[in-house]
Amino acid sequence: MRISELSRQTGATPRALRYYEEQGLLRPARRSSGYRDYDARAVQTVRHIQLLLSAGLGTTAIGEILPCIVDGTTVLAPTCPELLDALAEERSRITKSMAKLAEARGILDQLIGARANPR
DNA sequence: GTTCTAACA
DNA sequence: TGTTAGTA
Hints:
- The protein is built from five helices and two strands.
- By secondary structure, the protein is mainly alpha-helical.
- It has a single domain, classed as Multidrug-efflux Transporter Regulator, Chain: A, Domain 2, CATH 1.10.1660.
- Strands 1-2 form a two-stranded antiparallel sheet.
- β1 (29-30) and β2 (36-37) form a beta hairpin.
């Protein structure tokens, strides 16, 4: 299928799909016309990319994790250690971010003279 | 009409 | 990422 079709099936813009390729996340074949030619598998791959992206992982991390994903239905399977490793790393990153945000909120609470949980 | 690459009022 | 330009 061509880029517009994959875009339609995944919701990713053609621009994003080309970007994923630049990052080595996708390797579509090329037609004699120069147009990218994606196989059906690409749909699943893009969904995996979107999932990992929404988890806060960067394209470089995703590039390392992607090959560890089993061609199951929707989600991924913690196969190789690299995957668990990268995911655990990202998780601790998030935990640290949450701590900083909580601090920032605490300061704002004082400045505002607010109660514990002002939305 | 669609896609491609490259580049940025 | 969007978007636009100039092509193939």
